[in-house]
Task: structure prediction
Amino acid sequence: MKKILIMLLVLITVVAGQNIKVLETKVLIKNDNSIHYAFPNFSPQGDKILYTTVGYKGLWLYNLDDNTTIQLNNLRGAGYKPVFSPGGEKIFFRHEELIKKRRYFSISHQSIETREIHDLIQKERDVSTPRKSAGNIVIYKAKNQREIYSCDKEVKLLEESIEKEINAFTENSKLYLEINGEKSVIEPVGKGHYIWGSISPDRDKILFTLVGKGTFVTNLNGEILLNIKNANFPKWSSDGKWIVFMNDKDNGHKVTSSDIMVIHVESKNSFTLTNNVDKIAMYPSWSENKIVYQTAQGNIEMLIIEFQE
Amino acid sequence: MKYIKLFTLLIFSTIVLFSQDLSGTKVCIDPGHGGHESDDRYMPETGFWESESNLTKGLFLKGILESLGGFVVITRTGNDDPPPTEGYGTPDDPSLSQRAAIANENNVDYFISIHSNGANGQANYTLAIFNGKTNDPRYPLAKTMAQILSEQIYTANRTTTHYAWGDLTMHPDWNYGYGVFFDGTTPLSMPGNISEGSFHDYIPESWRLMSIDYRQKESWAIAQSITNYFEEGDIVSQNILLGMVRSLYESPDYFCLSSLHDQYLPLNNAKVKLIPDNAPEDSVIYYCDDNNNGFFMFDSLESADYQIIIEKENYYNDTASVFVDRKMFNFKDRYLTIKTPPTVVSTKPANNESSFPAWDPIKITFSREMNITGALDKISFSPDADFSVSWENTNTVLWINPDSLGFETEYTVTISSNLTDVYGHNLDGNNDGTGGDDFSITFITSPPDITPPKVVSHYPEMLAHDIALKPVLNVTFDEIINSSSINTESIKLKNHATDTFVAIDILVFNKNNKTGISIFPRDALIADNLHVITISEEIKDMYDNHLTNQVFFTFFTEEASPEFTTIDNFNNIGTNWWEPSQSGSTMGVVVENTYMESNSDTLNPITPNNSASMEIGFQWDLNSGNWLVRNYLSKGAPLDVTFDRNNLLQVYVFGDGGNSKFRFAVDDNIGGSSGTEVSPWYEIDWVGWKVVTWDMSTNETGSWIGDGSLDGKLRVDSFQLTYGNNENAASRGVVFLDDFAVVHIPEVAIDDNNQQVAQGFELMQNYPNPFNPTTNINFAIPQTGNVKIGIYNIQGELVKEFQMGKLSQGNYNVVWNARDNDNRNVACGTYFCRLVYKDQSITQKMLYLK
Result:
């Protein structure tokens, strides 16, 4: 796993006002025989990568400073949309167990240092994944019941005691805009399944995918700023100027190809960062000058990029 | 192209109160494919689109589950998008990653992707797929559900069988899984399955899938699988009566599986009337569609007795009683009789056939059940022949059994138009749609023999090892071969390693109605080379029947010539060997025809200065239950030759093909407490010369008066023969023996290490076997040594070689993917895996099936 494959420069692209140079491609984590690793995600400081296995079972943490890996837990479902605390010292995640074949969810947090796990919610149906908002953790339960937990004090907070932050996200095929703690369904591009929704770092733009229609960036009023036809699993860059996504293709039975691409929101210029004939690259995440993604072989790879004005 | 705008019709209108409760349970339904594009599946023969069928099933399933209280997310609801950019999704054909994301973001408890299958147009089974290997599922519950699902859909669709397979077992070369489960690409966060309910490229099934109700039936089966999975039991209040209306005496012109009764033509637009026994006024009518499936279905029925009446123009009406049980699927298939006169649909022999076996019965197949009363009088032969008749298959097949037809004679068989079917229609002999015509066929009978010759034995065996550099090769046929066809063109020996033919001499012998061919290379063969004997189709019997296919057999020559010690070359037998009758062990023979003597005519031709052989004649007393001829070595120089079990005994035997059996006997522990041990029996199924060898180093012995162990110093006791005691065994025979010798295996020090070598060198049977396309080859070596594995085809050609290099002691696994050294797929069939380690080798047979 510690082996690092350094590849030569993959691609240099020059566009008006913005160059992107891929300096290096590293294989950070190689699949371990039958275990395929997946869904890498950067810590807020960009020094660690949280990832899971296929099936979202368990959480692992890769430290970029010393190239070491620790397994945090082996809980079922823990790898589906976990989030770091703002300081990066804790992980909040949802895990689950099947009771009469139905999924019952618990929300827990785990200290990276001690690896101790504490439950916030235990074995309930209709529990959303944890979401960060103004330094706290927000969870939605059935009937839009919203619960807020402090990242530091491990206590449930009262709605009126917390700072409000604009947020946007997708759940149950709907796109939600949350302002002043009130969430509302918006449909800026019509009916359908809304997925992969998120708010921009400066909280003035919404990114989402409407199934079959494409990926969009809108302002908070729903006015379309950007429409990308073939972009899946879009994520914001740290500065909110870029979006990284995968342009996967399939034949109805299997994924036939997928590359990691980026697009500049303002100029709408897009670049392909991977150019892998034999490799399928998917599910990217971005932190500063690093983009991490998984391959179909179950490896976690990272691109080191350089922005050039 | 006609797109069916059916989806607005699929509002689930049947509101039924069910006892099952899926309240709060979330299911994601994914109708596979979509949008009539290149990744859709289309059958031009029937107009079938998989995307439409999957969507019909998915929408109907959604209605059922919602009526049970379930929360349902469906990944698409339409199918009419214009073709999108190749490989990317549209709202009516989302990408696989989007389909998985819909399920994940809706936090569903279960995901099902609905598909139908396709292969070669000749299969129709039900398959449910889950993520992982079949014996190692990613979600164990997904395998549980796959088993439920496959069985329920199989029950509903009545396919040939059903399976629940892991995607990584089905497609190990894909590495990343199947469909929306892809391990490394679009994983689901919950248990999920892909259902492949039936095969849309099997034409009868493709037509059935064109019926909307037929699709809905599968939705019911999936719904019941889901209630079973969630431990809510069967949907007991939904009783469905369904079936097919087919023609009893007509068949479609496309491929059909008889196990599914698809050889009966489905009838379009049949009217099926269902009459409740207790309330005739509540009768309902179902009209079969015009999509060549004959399918009908009544759902939401009370459990009760009913009558069904089926009407179809030009067919007799059909009435049947049926009890609809309290279960989901109650089947009632009906077969209607067409109102046309009977015809002859096939005959054997065919009309104008020129070589029909004179001894075979004649088969006439009619289009329907015939009235067999007085049928014998309505059949005639020209020229006259005596015959009897019999009927089978509900009196649709007539067998005419002539007493004896002449060879190479023209006959005409006529069936009178007075023969009628069970409805009184006269035979339509000329097939013009009107009854009243005789039917005739004319044929010519065959010569007395029309069976091609077959090879019944050959030496060496396929892929045999350590064959002498000056061997006597033998091929024996099951009948007498025309000697004119036996020559160095029809029989060839080739050195496969050097790709050169080897000059040979051939001797031909006929015994016991068999021909044996002894083949002698003129020069010594090259050591440790693969050789191939080819017997061409030019070989023919006395009636010009040729060998059906070329015959190959291959062998490896020995690495170096071993040492021989002659025991007896039989040039001067004298009185060293007893007559059979001198031994008290000889029994079960006709004494006057059982003898041993010197023979100067039948000699092993490869031996220089050979002047005589030993001739043993015998006649078995078939009234006896025990048979043995013992030619005992009583004295002389041959008795002075001693040896031990690390050697081979060999003698050249001229066989008569009479299937008597031959063996060696030796005395063991000479100088001590001696006993007599015997070799296994060797059945004399060959004609001509062949070397018979007993490898004593394996300690394989037969059963006689010894203890079965070859102990200490050995010497020859006798040759023994016994009756073959099977239907091919001749009661009388003669064999000749020549050049009896001990073959010395190079001395090997027997120490602990070497014993380990013998014990620890193993090539296990490959698994799976048969296989497709990958198989595991496991082997073990006891010490460090060079190892290679060769895969040979049935013709002995090396198709794939694994050069393993020097390996240390241990167990190893090699996976062969049915590709040759040039990475091309090899043909299906039998292959031989040969493991070579140091100077040893082991061969296993493997079968590659499609």
Notes: Chain A touches chain B through 52 residues (CB under 8 Å). The domain at 12-308 of chain A is CATH 2.120.10.30 (Neuraminidase). Chain A has a mean pLDDT of 88. DSSP finds no helices and 30 strands in chain A.
